[in-house]
Amino acid sequence: MINNLVNKLNKYENIKYGKCNPETIRYTPYYKKDENIDSIDYLIILNIKYEIAIIWNQKFQRDNNYFIKTQSLSGLSWQTVLPISDEIKDWYKKMGTKQESIYQKVLVMSFRTLYYNIENLEELFIFDDRDTDFPKHLNNSIEDVQRNKRTSYIYNRDRRFRNKVLSAYKNQCAICRCKEKLILEAAHIKAVADNGSDDVRNGICLCRNHHRMFDENLIKIDYDNLNLKYCSQSVKDMPWYEVFINKYNGKILKSNV
User: Is 194 helix (H, G, I), strand (E, B) or coil?
Assistant: First the structure.
């Protein structure tokens, strides 16, 4: 994925990117003396280890007569900002320590999500009160941006639910047995929208592909008999399905709780 992403990024003259220390959210770009900084609209940090990118809006900084030489999210770790699945997370960072300093919006997303959203960065950087970290009291009189309590609770709740569900399935997809933790997700058996709980017994560990199939009703699971009670024909034609039937006898994993 990284090679495809870099090849695509190289096509944009208004984007500058660089790889970073895999454990520190900090990047200091070194501009050449003859490089036109005014032509750079977005500055992107690529973390190869976690396959996520953090994007700064250089154009926003320039339009507000502010330029940050070193881009960082102080006090945060990569594990903290790591997005779940293909979501786009946002953070609001104050540009400077002065009380009158304004805020900038910082985006965090997976390589895959960035690849498909490079053309939409301008739209994604619009300040929106639906954002997860949008400061409801945003103005120039406050010193720090605090996460909205409700969205913070939901985010932390989701992470706890995911960790418990993955552990219950020994960190592997219940269907294809994929063990790559970065793409494993916790699906609710009974949806939250239908009053489903975050009890680990209401969760099943699925890889991103099977989670999407599950949500789109392309597959339906029989939890009593530990098999798939329904698969669309398009799903049955996929290579993994034959492996699922022949290698795993068409059985899904059972939770250990």
Answer: helix
